[in-house]
Structure formats: C-alpha cells, structure tokens
Amino acid sequence: MTSTKPNVVFVLGGPGAGKGTQCARIAEKYGYVHLSAGDLLREEAAKPDSSLGKEINEHIKNGSIVPVAVTCKLLENAMKKSGKENFLIDGFPRNQDNVNGWKESVGDRVNVQCVLFFDCDEQTCVARCLERGKASGRTDDNEASLKKRIVTYNDSTRPVIQLFDKENLVKRIDASNDVDKRFGEFLKYGLKGAV
Ligand code: UP5
Ligand code: MG
Fold it and tell me: Second label for 95, Cα 20 to 30 Å away, from 14, 59, 72, 80?
C-alpha cells in the first residue's frame, strides 16, 4: 500500500558524528528536506524578539535537552512551510520525552521510514567538534560543553536508538570513516528516490 503521508527519516548519532554533513548530501541527491533540530533551535534563539532565546541557549551550552514542545513546534512549522513530503529530521528525538512529545503532537500523521544511526567513536566525535569549534562560533564546541553533550548522548539518546532498533527501524552507518565512503552506504537503504 502506498502511503500518502509525509515521510520522515530520523537521523541520530553523537555530537560531531557527521549527521549534518551527510544529511546535506542526502537532501541534495534524493530530494529530502533537511531539518536539523539543533539548527532550528539556534535560529530561534538568535531572533532578537524570541522569548525562548535565553532558555534555548542555556540548554545548548550545557548539552541538555530543550523541552520537547519547543522543538516539536519548530519542526512542525518548518515541515509545513516547506510544502514538501520527504524529511530528514536531524538530531531529534534525543530522549524518551522527545519521543513521547513527537507521538502526541505528530504521531501517525507522518510515516517514519527509518532511523539513520551514525555510529562514531567518542574520541573522533570530540576531535571533530573541537576542530570545528575553531571557527564555528558554536557555544557548545568546547571541551566543557562536549563532556556534557557526550553524557546526554550516552544517557538519553542511546536508549532512544535502542528503542527504535527493537522496532527494526535502525540503519546503522559506520560514521568514523571518510565522508565519501559513507555516502555510498545510503544507496542500499531504499530511501525514497534512491536506486
Ligand atoms: N566531519 C563530518 N563528517 C566527517 C568525516 N567523515 N570525517 C572528518 N570530518 C568530518 O560534523 C561535525 C564536524 O565534523 C564538521 O566540522 C564536519 O565537517 C566534520 P557535522 O556533520 O556537523 O556533525 P553533527 O553530527 O551534525 O554534529 P553536531 O555537533 O551538529 O551534533 P549535535 O547532535 O551535538 O548538535 P545539534 O545541533 O543536533 O544539537 C545541539 C544542541 O541543541 C544539543 O546538545 C541540545 O542542547 C539542543 N537540541 C535539543 O535540545 N533538542 C533537539 O532536538 C536538538 C538539539
Ligand atoms: Mg549537526
């Protein structure tokens, strides 16, 4: 049966695993809309009139997770605004509360195709973020924030990936090797438009 619902691919993995880099490539090649939850939160926080800016910035710096109602609203608005049907949702859901909030507000209105899991060792993740931090201007690309981001990832996000795995939704990708080698791995996952 063909689904007429929008398709969603969740993209998860540690800080600096390469989610954003690969999503940009998949989006270009397969016509998905790339929505990074982190980018949407940073954009919202940067608005001069945002009442949520301070709270979002605190969470980002501390590597903690922004309340799901905020993130879900930003994602839903971006999906609506795009007018498109295939979405890569990068960096969400990050904990059980995110999963519950998404189910409540979006739930069956979309078809969750799969979860791309970028599996990358901690040392590589940290090294990439610190390197990027030299020029990124991100308030969380420093050693103190990275320690907290890694703890949050291990304690809160890994269990979510395990949960999706039990539902047979997870496609694991070795994210520690080079960018081009990894890109070829998507071809076998039957993303919409992939051949
Ligand atoms: N790079 C990438 N791939 C490489 C490769 N194969 N070889 C060598 N270098 C590679 O890549 C990171 C860096 O590594 C880049 O410089 C890249 O060139 C290089 P990137 O593609 O940016 O990795 P990504 O996995 O996207 O890393 P990011 O730092 O964005 O991941 P996070 O999950 O930590 O950050 P995000 O922006 O998603 O979230 C930030 C914060 O927002 C969270 O900590 C949290 O506080 C908050 N947040 C929420 O609260 N809720 C959400 O739903 C989402 C975010
Ligand atoms: Mg990213």
Answer: 80
The answer to whether 116 and 173 are in contact (CB under 8 A) is yes
Cβ(91) to ligand 1 under 6 A?
yes
152-179: per-residue pLDDT in tens?
Answer: 999 999 999 999 999 999 999 999 988 7
pLDDT digits (tens, 9 = 90+) for 73-88: 999 999 999 999 999 9
Place of tokens 């090294």: 127
Look up residue 107 and give its two tokens. 């739930």
With a 6 Å cutoff on the Cβ, whether 18 touches ligand 1 is yes
Q: Sheet holding 111-119: strands in order across?
A: 33-36, 86-90, 7-13, 111-119, 170-174
Reduced to 3 states, what is the DSSP secondary structure of residue 79? helix
Q: For ligand 1, atom 42, which residue shows the shortest CA distance?
A: 38
Distance 189 CA to ligand 2 centre (A): 21
Please indicate whether residue 37, judged by its CB atom, sits closer than 6 Å to ligand 1.
yes
Instruction: State residue 7's pLDDT score.
Output: 95
- Ligand closest to CA 129: 1
8 A C-beta contact, residue 148 and residue 65: no
* Peptide bond preceding 93 in cis form (omega within 30 of 0): yes
Instruction: Say what the pTM is.
Output: 0.96
112 C-beta neighbours (distance < 10 Å), count: 18
Residue positions counted in the chain: 195
Domain boundaries, the chain: 7-186
Domain 7-186 fold is Rossmann fold (3.40.50)
